[in-house]
Amino acid sequence: MPTQTDPGYFFMPDHIILIRTDEQPYSLGERLLGNLLGTPFRGKITPVRPRHHSIAGLSAYTDFDKIPGSADLIIAVTPPDSYDALFKTCRKKQLPHIILIQDWDSLPPSELHTAETAIRKHHGNGLNITACTTAGIQIPSLGLNISTQNEYAAGHTAILTGNAAVSREIDGILKKLRQGTSRHISLNYTVSPITSSDWLNRFGHSRHTKAAVLHHNLEEDQRKLFSAIRQFTRHTPLVLHITYRTDETDRAVLHSLARRCNFLISFDTDGLEAALRALLSDLPPLSRLDILSDAPAEWLDAHAPENLTLHFPNLPPQVCNGYLTGTPSPSRFHDTVSRQLARPDTQAVLAIPAPSGDGDDKKTTRALVRLSEQTAKPLLVSSPFSDGIPLFDNPLQAIRTLSYRNTAAALKQAQLDTAPPQPCRLKPLQTPNIKKALEAADPSLIAEALHLPPYRHTAHNAVQFQFRNHPVYGGILTARYDGKTAAALPPFTTLDSLRLARFAGLDDPQTLNRFLRTLTALSNHNLNLGTITLNLNGGQYHTDFDLKAPETHNASGRKTAGKTAQTLGHAAAKMHSAAAYLKHKNPAASEFLRHTSEAAAELLGSKPAADKKTPGVLAPYPAAHPKTLSLKNGTTVTITPLLPEDAEAKQQFVRNLDPEARYTRFMTRTNELPAATLARLCNLDYYCEAAWAARDAGGNIVAVARHSRLNRNECEFAIALAEHMRGSGLAQKMMELVIRTAAQQGYPAISADILKTNTPMVKLAEKSGFTLKESDTEKNLYRAYLDLTADKTTAKTNKNLHTGRKIT
Asked: What residues does the N-acetyltransferase domain cover (predicted)?
């Protein structure tokens, strides 16, 4: 699959226009220009400053509109009241990419409001506006530093933050580790219409980036954000850095998302440093760490993580439980560590030379560092006298790093897991029965309608599974057992059932699995019942409810609300008129009244926050699609989204394909799919990709069609068909479904590489409107391409397929 190319306007700009730069000492413009000129950036820089024809030795323009030619990037440090005119000029001159840099926290509310209004008005329709903090943009490999901060060292870590101080903190960690930055941008998460998920997609797949740090933004679309993370981590490891307050439930949800999307999480600076050490080092996953210290160190065992065993060796007579007795010389410490590393059961050693007043600790550290460079097994050294990835300030940091390394390996392995098939077929939910039970407000009837265990309210439970709506992540399921909390997110899979059953120590997960399938069905039916709880006590399951309050239909209430709205409307109009009258006589009073009138207008157009249900962070399975297809040969097939539980059926479908059909589909000779490929094809992100299975009357898969993301502007399709279904018209109908779904997800184009010998697929692509050209890389391939923006038939409404959403 081709990887996304770097957008030149950001990653390799040739011409940058700086608006409102100056030479006034310590001003924002002066600091930005000074840093930019102090780096070896080889592109063209054009400053714009009224009444100045040169700035810092550069030829400058007094009027932005008079600059000839084009530019890759506009950097503006102008005050917010100039934004409207600036954006109009950029649109007129067809300069689409604008970076606004401000000390946003120092702006008065009125100026901030002016900035937000102008940005909302002009962003889009060919104009891309990004609001940055003073940490701005840095690409050290290009010598590009558009920020007020010192130049970052060049390296292999991408940084995306929403705070200048966080950027500075991450840079400090990397310098301590003797590492550097490949790309950096610091957004104002509140103001910028282009979000962190947009920029993460723009980072794409770069050979210069080995790891990334993303500062989590709670305010943006979480579904879009975690979809972007999931796509990014398919090629580059990522740490999601949390700087806001979290509770036990928040952390459980984030860990559940980490399993789905394959990222590490840091909740503090020490955690971030440990995570970066784990990703940037060559440390292997370890199950055991041997500890040797010239001071008692068994206290570390209380800090042992669940995924790492700490071992304190005994080497009589001089080593007792990892403690080198006496006062070991540097040579003795070196010899003891060497002997421990030579043992066949040793995986790695953490050496902890204690501080001494005679300087031996420094000599010991140097000797151990040399040994670490010579041994094949990992030797970690805890000492304040050295820095770098394998050297640690304290032993807890080393242990935490290895724990993160093990977590990263476990998350990577989890991406290869395939969900087992559903154990049985459940009775479908009957929406009328559910609504009838809700109208009766009878919890027992509701439990029966949902096919759940009988209703009973209990205060104390051995195990509790609770489904509710989270204000940030939408529907979540929390499991509480033995003082711990785990979480899962819909749409649930059998893997979720097995994991939560292990967490709660359940021997039989059948009831839990049925509960999760009911919750997924409720999500698919868009039914919000409030909080649903499954309790386990004494081997007995019961269901409990905290039902969502029904909407009121009180005529008197509506009349009062209408009268209040009318009063607010009159007040807003009067304040707006007064603001216009006072505009020139008292600007401050005018601005206050204008803001107040706009707030009243927004209040009139808004609904109470309690009525709004937060959408789930993971995209649901598509619901609005053809359920059956009637074919030319008289047969009827059932169409469903391909689910994780279909992995076994998908593998059997591939095994049953003709060998030549397998080759034309996968372009390799294989009898079945490797485990990693099968997992990737069945564990889909229905926010930006989709797959459809056609099944015969016996429930066997006879065709699979899909599209997968190449980059934010293009997706790739694939279709496989059972031999006996050829000529039935099924392939054409599946192709139409794929094209429609891709367009509804916002892709401008869809493409595929097709073997020239695959005549049926070549004809199908031509019939479907694709343009076929010789491949640029392989002589035996055609490149099929279809512009989806020109297809008016694909713009049908389907909210479950995210209609009209532009992929970014």
From this structure: 637-791
Share of the chain above pLDDT 70, in %: 86
Residue with tokens 């940058």: 16
Structural tokens at position 477 = 């399921």
Mean of pLDDT over the chain: 87
> Which distant-in-sequence residues (6+ apart) come within 8 Å of 689 by Cβ?
706, 707, 708, 709, 715, 745
Burial (CB < 10 A; 0-12, 13-18, 19+), residue 58, is: middle
CB 255 within 8 A of CB 265: yes
Task: Give the integer Cα–Cα distance in Å for 282 and 405.
Answer: 10
First to last CA, the chain: 19
Domains 8-279 and 628-801 are alike in CATH topology: no
Sorting pLDDT into bands at 50, 70 and 90, what band is 724?
Answer: very high
| Residue 285 Cα distances to 103, 279, 337, angstroms | 43, 11, 20
Checking if the pLDDT of 1 tops 50, the result is no
Region 383-391: what's the mean pLDDT?
75
Domain spans of the chain, in order of start: 8-279, 281-414, 431-546, 555-611, 628-801
What pLDDT is stored for residue 790 in this prediction? 73
- 21-43 pLDDT, tens digit each: 555 667 888 888 888 888 888 88
DSSP state of 507: S
Residue 433 has what DSSP assignment? H
Indicate the length of the chain as a whole number.
Answer: 808
Give the span between the Cα atoms of 495 and 644, in whole angstroms: 9
The β-bridge relationship of strands 97-101 and 73-76 is: parallel
Which residue from 518, 396, 542, 528 is spatially nearest to 457, judged by alpha carbons?
A: 542
Measure Cα distances from 243 to 106, 161, 185, 417, 499 in Å.
21, 11, 17, 31, 28
Residue 548 has pLDDT above 80, yes or no: no
In the predicted structure, residue 716 carries a pLDDT above the cut 90: yes
Is 547 strand, coil or helix? strand
Residues 657 and 720: beta-carbon distance below 8 Å: yes
Please tell me the pTM assigned to this model. 0.88
User: Thinking of the domain 431-546, which architecture would CATH place it in?
Assistant: 2-Layer Sandwich (3.30)
- The phi and psi torsions of 212 (rounded to 5 degrees) equal -140, 150
